[in-house]
Amino acid sequence: MELRVLRYFLAVCQEKNISKAAENLHIAQPSLSKQIKDLEEELGVTLFTRGHRQISLTEEGYFLRDRAQEMIDMEEQTTQALTSSKLITGNLNIGTGQSFEIKSITKIIDQIIQTTQQVHFSFYDGNADDIEAKVNDGSLDFGIIMGYRPIEDFESLILPERNQFYAIFSEKLPLAQKD
Fold first, then answer.
1. Which stretches does DSSP call E strand in 111-162?
2. What pLDDT is recorded for position 122?
3. pLDDT reading at 88 higher than 70
4. With CB atoms 3.0 to 4.6 Å apart as the test, which of 44, 101, 141, 167 could cross-link to 161 if both were Cys?
5. pLDDT band at 34, cuts 50/70/90?
6. What is the pLDDT of residues 15-32, one digit of tens each?
7. Which helix (H) or strand (E) holds 92?
């Protein structure tokens, strides 16, 4: 299954007519029909129900259309990432605990989003042990952890912010009278 043929298949899906798809692709209609027929034979399924002037997808055709679009999108993203002169592209997976003190990180992320459309961020909320394990196994690109931990196995930097924790409770409790 070639990406070129999948592009042809997607064009036929969009136009719902082989002649119109061939015209848009700038190839001969018999050649496109043969490509689609060869694809059906290669896969061992019927992808279209052919009518007089219009064709419709079979269940297998819908499945292949969705998968073909994913493959074409992946190919385009890969090509763009490899040929892009941008320093930062792709998805960044970040692990962090919930803390107001990561505001400096979110400001940097906002600047990246404003200037670079090719970067997407995914966040994972967890404790330091979870985040460290996910950075180790590669499912996170980096993590932001709080507290003091041995981090010799990682490249790291210490952020200037410090977490402050507060205990709140009713004034009526005896604990409220303490400093």
1. 119-125, 142-144
2. 87
3. no
4. 101
5. very high
6. 998 999 999 999 999 999
7. strand 90-96
CB 176 within 8 A of CB 169: yes
The predicted structure's pLDDT at residue 84: 62
Do the bridges between strand 55-57 and strand 48-50 make them parallel or antiparallel, or are there none, so unpaired? antiparallel
In this structure, the strands spanning 119-125 and 90-96 are parallel
Structure tokens at 23: 């015209």
Cα 42 to Cα 2, 37, 59, 156: the distances in Å are: 11, 9, 17, 51
Helix then strand then coil, % of the chain, to nearest 5:
50, 15, 35
Asked whether 135 and 107 are in contact (CB, 8 A), the reply is no
User: What is the DSSP pairing of strand 90-96 with strand 55-57?
Assistant: unpaired
Residues 91 and 122: beta-carbon distance below 8 Å: yes
Query: In the block, which residue shows the tokens 């074409």?
Result: 72
Q: Is residue 104's pLDDT more than 80?
A: no
Helix ranges (DSSP H) in the chain: 3-15, 18-25, 29-43, 59-83, 103-115, 128-137
Query: Over the stretch 109-128, which tens digit does the pLDDT of each residue have?
Result: 888 888 776 788 888 888 88
- Report residue 40 as tokens: 């059906």
What is each CA distance from 122 to 44, 92, 108, 117, 149, in whole angstroms? 39, 6, 15, 15, 24
Please give the Cα distance from 60 to 75 (Å, whole number).
22
